[in-house]
Each structure stands twice: as structure tokens, then as C-alpha cells.
Amino acid sequence: MAHWIGVVHRMQAMTAREAGVVAFGHGKEALVRSLSPGDTVIYYAPKSDFEGEPVQAFVTHARVTGEKAYEKEWRPGLTRWVRDAAFDDADEVPVRPMLEDLTFVRNKRSWGMTFRGGKFSISDEDYVRIATAMGVTP
After folding, report:
1. Is the pLDDT of residue 117 over 90?
2. Which of 40, 43, 109, 114 has CB atoms 3.0–4.6 Å from 60's, for a disulfide?
3. How many other C-beta atoms are found inside a 10 Å radius of the C-beta of residue 37?
4. What is the pTM of this model?
């Protein structure tokens, strides 16, 4: 089992939650194909939406349930590669108070650069720290 951070706007994370799927990097196939059932995904939202207000928080927590990646209509005329997932009830947790304790944030002064990619893996230790703060049993 692996633990992943997905970087999307809050609105995208909520859309994924409602659909019961995970997607990354504008729906790129390779990013969901690398997942396995049982992997966990924590979505980090830098903003509320593309032009929105800053959020800078971990906003949802999911466990991958789908055996295969597939294409799904995200909204009319737009498809994304996704994997089925079960989302937990989770509290939204601001990232700033956690920065000093997160080992994947190597440069604490330029911490935002850590979240530039669409998806990255995190250690068990960091996963437990974030999931616990979100009120999810690791």
C-alpha cells in the first residue's frame, strides 16, 4: 500500500468525492494507472478553484478501490482518467501549522514548491500525521 498526495483545487476534490473516483494532473492516464487498490490519496488544495481564493489545506481522504483505470466524463465534453475510490469523512486541515513536521517538505521557506506536481508519494509517517489531523483512522 502506498500513500499519495494529489494536488487539485478544492472544487475538483469535491467533484472527485461526489463521483467516488480519484484523478490527477488534468486526468492523465499514467497518474492513475500507477495506483493500486488499498492505496490512500489525500487531496491538497492550493485554491478553491482555478481563479479562486487560497485554501492551502488537505481537503479530502480516499482509499483506492478500483482495480483498473478508466475514462469518465468529468463534465460535459471533458473526460478524465480515474480510479474508483471510497472517500472518508475527513476534516479539512490547513497545511501551514504542519509544515515543520512534514518530512516531504524539504525547504520550509519555499514549501509551496513541494505541491507543484499533480501527485507525489509520501512516507507512512507523514501519512499518519496528516490522516490523524484530518480525523481519519490511518
Report:
1. no
2. 43
3. 14
4. 0.95
DSSP annotation of 39 reads: -
What are the two backbone dihedrals, phi and then psi, of residue 106, each rounded to the nearest 5 degrees? -80, -40
CA–CA separation, 86 vs 21, rounded Å? 8
The pairs formed by 133-138 with CB atoms below 8 angstroms and a separation of 24 or more are 133/58, 133/91, 133/93, 133/98, 134/42, 134/58, 134/61, 134/90, 134/91, 134/92, 134/93, 135/89, 135/90, 135/91, 136/61, 136/88, 136/89, 136/90
Q: What is the pLDDT of residues 43-75, one digit of tens each?
A: 999 999 988 999 999 999 999 999 999 999 887
Question: At 128, which amino acid appears?
Answer: V
